[in-house]
Design goal:
Mean pLDDT of chain A: 94
Largest sheet of chain A: 5 strands, mixed
Oligomer: homodimer
Largest interface: A-B, 35 and 35 residues
Distance between the termini of chain A: 16 Å
Order of helices and strands of chain A: EEEHHHEHHEHHHEHEEE
Number of strands of chain A: 9
Strand order of the largest sheet of chain A: 3-2-1-4-5
């Protein structure tokens, strides 16, 4: 039985979407205690990048000049060490759309520690108050009546997630379920069934997901307990949870 | 000529108002670059306290149990080390009502480093958009159209201050003026002049301030440049800025 208490909520801001060619420009994390339902520690740091201009400065507002400001300063590496220590101690690392953040963390020195801890993608969680499943962080925060007035800085996004968790009474169990075995729920329809497709999408289903063993179906990897709550009938296919 | 760039915005949450008997329960700071007008680093950590119950848990929401959760863990001291490194490197340490925060920081191991850097009390700054001077942090944030939906956690309060600075075009000069010599502006009135007293109060004047060399007057320690902007006539008394 998985028992989560200390979780590390993590967020990466980057210079683009490609972890092979783009770089981490800011890294942030929050150490959160589920048993105390509160934030224990927070840390974020800009990271120097090799480019002179951040191609996505219009999104995250971080200039390459600001990011280079800390280059070679002791507190630059001290902040990374602190993030590494927090990750090493956490029962799980959380991120919203975790595969994205993880692909960038994998390229940092902290990757060995980060990959020794199970990751939980909060976008895959079936949040009871979400108006549609697999929605983005801002939409999810608003569904939880959390005021949003900025995003796309690492710690701001971590804090939105911390507030969502704090307001969700069942958070601990919801997150633990993400670490248990899941199955593929699949659903087939016709091209013209727009209403059915919208309903599947709102339930977090994706069409022709490449990671799903069935082709040409709407599907979602889910905890078996959540299948019964779907508003339509699905075909279930076994699949172990691949973290 | 003082030239501020990297500032450390600092906030202490404590178990009470008395630095001799009460303890720091959370410490947070933001490293902010005035030249880039952006946040470079953020860090906060709960700190173990000797009491079983935090007497002001109803204010800051921090339980003694949560604060003790980090006791003896490596990242507890790593976070403090990071705060110390940031303070050591900063051109100034900022806090809203700085004497309060400083009295608590003075009791921590980081006090030697913290006292080697000039402190700036942002409550003493003449903020152009403040509806009244020397107001509290929430009032000041609202005057700058910054949404406030929580306070009294260390990093939340630092972030409010960072947003105020980010929105104030003249922030660099306003903060630098706090480190220059100041004078006492004093104003005398009668007991019944309620309107005049309210006006003096809104301008940040206090009655019978014990640190003012004159008795029985309304007074404020100010930068000489700001005297002319007062909406009433004052008597100026020389006084060096005592940091």
């Amino acid at each position: 039985m998985i028992d989560l208490d200390l979780i590390c909520i993590c967020d990466v801001e980057s210079t683009g979407l490609n972890p092979t060619t783009d770089e981490v420009i800011e890294l942030g994390c929050i150490l959160y205690s589920l048993s105390h339902n509160t934030v224990l520690q927070q840390v974020s740091t800009l990271m120097p990048v090799s480019v002179d201009v951040n191609p996505v400065e219009h999104i995250n507002g971080i200039s390459a000049g600001a990011a280079s400001k800390l280059d070679g300063r002791p507190f630059q590496s001290e902040a990374i060490d602190l993030i590494e220590s927090i990750m090493a101690y956490a029962d799980g690392i959380l991120a919203h759309n975790a595969p994205f953040d993880r692909s960038f963390v994998d390229r940092l020195e902290i990757s060995t520690v980060a990959s020794s801890v199970p990751w939980i993608d909060t976008r895959s969680v079936t949040w009871p108050r979400a108006t549609r499943q697999r929605c983005n962080l801002v939409e999810l925060a608003l569904a939880y009546s959390i005021p949003v007035w900025s995003n796309h800085r690492a710690l701001t996004d971590c804090q939105l997630l911390a507030h969502i968790i704090q307001r969700e009474p069942d958070a601990k169990r919801l997150l633990e379920k993400e670490l248990e075995s899941k199955v593929w729920a699949t659903w087939r329809t016709t091209v013209n069934d727009k209403e059915g497709q919208a309903r599947a999408k709102a339930a977090g289903f994706r069409w022709n997901d490449k990671t799903c063993p069935a082709n040409g179906v709407w599907s979602r990897l889910m905890h078996p307990d959540d299948i019964a709550q779907l508003p339509f009938d699905v075909v279930v296919m076994g699949a172990d949870y691949a973290n």
